[in-house]
Specification:
The chain is α/β, with parallel strands linked by helices and about 500 residues long. It folds into two domains: about 25-360, no CATH class; about 365-510, no CATH class. The protein is built from 22 helices and six strands. It has a four-stranded mixed beta sheet with strand order 1-2-5-4, with helices on both faces. The chain has a two-stranded parallel sheet with strand order 3-6. α4 packs across α6, α10 packs parallel to α18 and α14 (about 250-260) packs across α16 (about 285-300). The radius of gyration is 26 Å and the shape is globular.
């Protein structure tokens, strides 16, 4: 039954007497910069994702999720990764939904898009900040295009900031999920939980019995998440890699510097941020950053781990902004200048990374897989090893495996790298080399970009002396800040005595 014209007109009038259509039109007119920014952000992701070659760390998590059941994944093998399992569970679900290895990067793009949308439209930060932050390095590249667990961190941190003054149950669940993203994120989650608890006590909320019960229930939920994270990530006794960061305070300083190199910007940046927060008596909110940096100093932290401090800082600004805007003019100037320097540097990093990833191979894995495919289809044997001088294991060979439906290496036990001291990949290689596998793939790692492979190392010489000839090498380099970072190469040797159904050709990297 059709409604009368008068009733339709009433439904189209908002409670304040302004037509809904007019309100929506006015909202679009005032928020067009936000929509334009989000569209531009999505366009950059859409252009950059197809150009990105995933590397071994991205492949390792995919291979674990692809080849293991959930019980085996969580009870045994994730423990060797030194990480909780939220990301692996997501990959497991995507794999069972028939999402391809390429498709996971589009899933990461969607997660990053959601993070940017939340930041742009929901945060209380000034428009200039909201429209600038999505184009900084960690939000546009490292935690958006590179398919690793850290892509979940900005979204969860921004949701934490959004819900900070809302439901404590929702906040407990978000902090619990954050703790299951990565161990470094778990330290941030713990710091945020401590800050929230202190905030509640200062407000006197636990004095109310109903509120106290609610907070205790939230604490139980959060502790359950933490217990699961610890249970999943607890390393086994035979884990193969151990780190020695060095003296605590030296390591701590190095980790903080990682976020805003060069060092001339790092120290003033953190001093300015601390002074700004202290001027409004919210210095306590920097505790999660101290937790994460301290963990990196004691255990381990690469620069993409320390980069978690960056979305954390955004979320802390989000939470404390109403009080920060009341800071003294001098403290505000220092804080704003520090943020401007940081954001400008991060935008430069993002531009460099995107351009580098577009014009250079981020990873050698897709090209090497294409080269090896005819050999694999013909049933030729392939052995995996590493260059003695530059590597400590053949882990990077894992990056090739997602492009095949089975493990292609005859000397590797699993279709993923087993970070165990019981791994026999190298011992088996030494036993099989005299039997002359058709191909040998040697993993080599260098600092900076390489245009040649030095074949004078002991591993290369032993392979050449066994009758092999150097065929080609595929190399990929990760951009790091404003320069090439680590280069990983798949160096391929062929035993000349056998023939294949089709011998592929590829541009050879120069060898010396």
């Amino acid at each position: 039954m059709e409604l009368p014209a008068e009733e339709i007109a009433e439904k189209e009038i908002a409670s304040d007497g302004i037509p809904v259509f007019a309100q929506n039109t006015a909202a679009l007119r005032t928020s067009w910069p936000e929509w334009l920014t989000l569209t531009f952000y999505a366009a950059i992701l859409a252009a950059a994702i197809p150009c990105h070659e995933p590397w071994a760390d991205e492949a390792q998590a995919w291979q674990l999720a692809r080849n293991l059941s959930l019980p085996d994944l969580f009870r045994t093998y994730i423990r060797y990764e030194g990480s909780p399992g939220l990301w692996h569970f997501l990959l497991w679900a995507l794999n069972r939904a028939h999402i391809s290895y390429t498709g996971i990067h589009w899933a990461c793009g969607l997660i990053a898009f959601a993070s940017a949308a939340l930041l742009i439209f929901a945060s209380p930060l000034p428009r200039a900040l909201r429209l600038t932050l999505p184009f900084t390095y960690f939000l546009l590249f490292q935690y958006a295009i590179v398919a690793r667990s850290y892509v979940l961190a900005p979204l969860l941190l921004f949701l934490v900031a959004w819900c900070w003054k809302k439901s404590p149950f929702t906040l407990a669940i978000l902090l619990g999920l954050l703790a299951n993203v990565a161990i470094h994120a778990a330290t941030i989650s713990a710091g945020l939980a401590v800050v929230y608890t202190i905030e509640q006590f200062r407000a006197g909320n636990p004095k109310s019995i109903p509120h106290r019960r609610k907070l205790l229930a939230c604490a139980a939920i959060l502790l359950a998440f933490y217990a699961f994270s610890i249970w999943t990530a607890k390393p086994p006794h035979d884990i193969a890699f151990k780190t020695s960061p060095g003296p605590f305070f030296i390591s701590l300083a190095l980790r903080l510097v990682e976020l805003s190199r060069p060092i001339g910007l790092a120290i003033p940046f953190w001093i300015a941020i601390a002074v700004w927060f202290a001027s409004r008596r919210v210095l306590l909110y920097l505790l999660p950053a101290a937790f994460c940096a301290g963990f990196c100093a004691v255990v381990y932290g690469n620069w993409w781990h320390v980069g978690l401090l960056y979305p954390l800082l955004i979320s802390l600004l989000w939470i404390t902004w109403p009080r920060l805007v009341e800071a003294s003019s001098r403290a505000s100037r220092w804080g704003n200048a520090a943020l401007a320097a940081m954001f400008g540097l991060q935008i430069l990093w993002a531009g460099y990374a995107l351009a580098f990833d577009h014009f250079h191979a981020f990873s050698p894995d897709p090209a090497a897989a294409a080269f090896l495919r005819p050999f694999v289809n013909h049933g030729d044997t392939i052995a995996l090893t590493y260059a003695d001088a530059d590597s400590t294991n053949a882990f990077d060979g894992t990056g090739i495996l997602p492009y095949f439906d089975h493990n292609i290496y005859i000397n590797q036990r699993y279709p993923f790298w087993w970070w165990s001291s019981q791994d026999t990949t190298e011992d088996t290689f030494n036993q099989l080399l005299p039997t002359h596998p058709r191909l040998v793939v040697v993993e080599a790692v260098f600092k900076g970009k390489r245009d040649h492979i030095p074949l004078d190392g002991p591993k290369y010489q032993s392979i050449l002396q066994a009758g092999y000839t150097y065929t080609t090498a595929f190399c990929g380099t990760m951009p790091e800040r404003l320069a090439p970072g680590l280069t990983n190469c798949h160096v391929i040797f062929e035993f000349p005595g056998a023939t294949t159904a089709a011998t592929p050709s590829a541009p050879a990297t120069r060898a010396r």
